[in-house]
Amino acid sequence: MKEGTNTDWYYEILKDGDKFIPYNSNSRYTLTPLRISYEDEYQCCGRLKTSRYSKCSKKIFLNVRDKPRAEVTAGTTTISVGGSVTLSCSVDNSAGWKYQWFRRTSHTSEYQLKTNDEQNRTISVSQGGIYRCRGERGDPAYYSDMSHEASINITFSNQVVATRQPDWPQIFSGEKITLTCEIQGGETTEWMCVWRHLGSIRPQISSKQFTFTVSELSSGDYQCQCKRRDDSYSSTKWSEAIRLSVSASKPRASLAADSSILPAGGSVTLTCSVDHSADWKFNWFRDGSVYPAAQLRNNNEPGGVIRVSQGGLYRCRGGRGEPVFYTEDSHDVTIEETPLNGVRVTLNPDWPVIYIGEMFTLRCEIQGGGSAEWEYEWRTSSSHKPPNQREFRADSASLSHSGDYKCKGRNKSSQYNSTQWSVTFKLTISDTEPRPVLSVSPSWLSPGSSVTLRCEVEHPSAGWRFYWYKAVPQPSSSFYNYELTLQTADHSYIVRGQTLTAGYVCRAGRGDVVYYTSYSEPKFVWSGDSHPAASLTASPDRELYSVSDSVSLSCGGNSTEWRLRRFTEQHLLSISGCGSLTGSWFELGSLQEGVAVFWCESGSGQFSNAVNITAQSFRSESWSFFVPFFIGLVCGILLLLFVLLLCFYRKIKDACCNRLNQILNIDRVSATQQSVNENETQVYSSLLHGDAAVYESIRVCGNTGSDAPADEHSNVTSHLNLKGCDKSREHESSDYINVHPESATGP
């Protein structure tokens, strides 16, 4: 009050015009704690103690709100290693706050952060975690409610690179390899890393390095991601994928000599190599008449080249890695020693076996003969005696060329200067046409894998070149056309990028005028991926069947003619369909126990996806046939009794019984006709081919549908339900034994 002093007055406080604090001598009054109900208009009034004079102040409005809650906001959480993330705390629509910060993780308790800034509105953190804050102001301190928890997950922007050691372009099953996750700019940080292979996290790996022994299943892409060892909320991005290509077959070393004849006092150079791979060191072996072979040299020749001055039977092998992974031993190479003026018969080309129709040359070699002119003499047990010349050439070998040959030389300048007879050389002409054996690996395609084709012939080092074909189904027949895709000097061929089911064939050829072997039997690689023009579905579709289950197979696509193939380890079944647009189908009422692969071949030459069907026998399922049989029998008897009673009741028993006999006769005729139709539409044939596999052929012709339009060829589906493939059939024609070689394109 302006008049007098504070002690001269009594004071009261009015709330919304009503007395709130009665007159008293205190000019100050504190509301604590504040309540929402205190929100209103207030004014104070004073009255002089010495008189009744009083006056009041202007009204003020007091706003009272609930306790405020702090709020946490975060800046970018993608930072480089060593960087920090900015966190901000605020209390809306108010001022004068200072802030406290708290952090915890999923496995540690919450604790308060210590900072140098008194206000602490904004802080920088280098660790991820679960953060929250609260505001503080006034004296005594008034605290806001804690903010909601903010989970801060930091992503490091540093580049992550996955590397492999050793970095070989081709890795073989059984070798050991180490993958390393490198974080550029984070070399001094301790990391825990995880590895991902083909989209799946590899368990029990928490190191930057991942060392393992590879197998065929190891092929594919690998990626890594790392977290700081002291902060599980801070991690890198996933690295770029690094791809491994693992070959399932163990490689074989290849040994070559610059000459198979060791001249007196001279040497021969041997070269050992392993195709399509690097970093090999080589072991060398020589044996004369003692087996096993004694090791000649150890891993001290990384170049794979040595010079030898002794005759013998040589071979080599490659080794690399730690522990050492060894290749298969090479084929043997024979180095023969010849004394001065020694005579020998050589064969060109130097192949172990010559086949009928091939061209060959026999030559009489005189070692150390110098520049002298020689006359030659031959002896042979064959019907073809060579002329007295150095060489005997046959443009087309026949069985009559087989036999023993030897020769000697006489110096033309001195009739007494002649060599001894050479050692007998045995020439073998074979009338058996060589037939290569084709193998494929893997049989089932998987993402990121390649297919290795291997064409094996007898005497693989005998100058063969190899021709690779794709098998294309012939329309309206059970044969294949062969389309040449490649020719190689190596007996193996890696197909990359194959994603659909396919068939392959190979053969070999050699010589200037090429002599060809017969074609190999077709081999198939299967894929679960469907071709746009051909697909195969199974109904019901499941991983495991009982041997008593019925399975329906449906070939679909833009063809009106289908052939279904079935393959097991000992059994191949071919079903050729010539059905109409409505298709034809069979039901496999009893499956063979084991695993079988099915696929379709269209009349337009396409392969469908393959379906793997596994059947097992279950003892409890033996009753599944008898239960419906007895139920049907009982129902039939009851129905027959009902009809007889009805006939008797109406006193027309004779007419009714005659009608019943007619119905039964019609049923018997229908059953007989159905059996005839089934016999006409299913022809089974089989052939036991050698002792390796049984090839069966089944031609199934459905109803052609005379009223179906002739030009409807697109989106046709043939349903093939297989019924009881019996292994005992052994007298039919083979799909492959009758393949026409002239249907192949190319060599």
Characterise this structure.
It contains 2 helices and 60 strands. It is 7% helix and 43% strand. It has 6 domains: 6-62, Immunoglobulins (Immunoglobulin-like, Sandwich), CATH 2.60.40; 71-155, Immunoglobulin-like; 158-247, Immunoglobulins (Immunoglobulin-like, Sandwich); 254-331, Immunoglobulin-like (Sandwich), CATH 2.60.40; 343-430, Sandwich (Immunoglobulin-like), CATH 2.60.40.10; 534-619 and 681-721, Immunoglobulins (Immunoglobulin-like). Strand 45 (465-473) and strand 46 form a beta hairpin.
Provide the CATH superfamily of the largest domain. Answer: Immunoglobulins
How many β-strand runs?
A: 60
Q: How much of the sequence is in beta strands?
A: 35-45%
User: What low-confidence regions span 5 or more consecutive residues with pLDDT below 50?
Assistant: 288-295, 297-301, 576-584, 659-743
The CATH topology of the largest domain turns out to be Immunoglobulin-like
Largest sheet: 7 strands, mixed
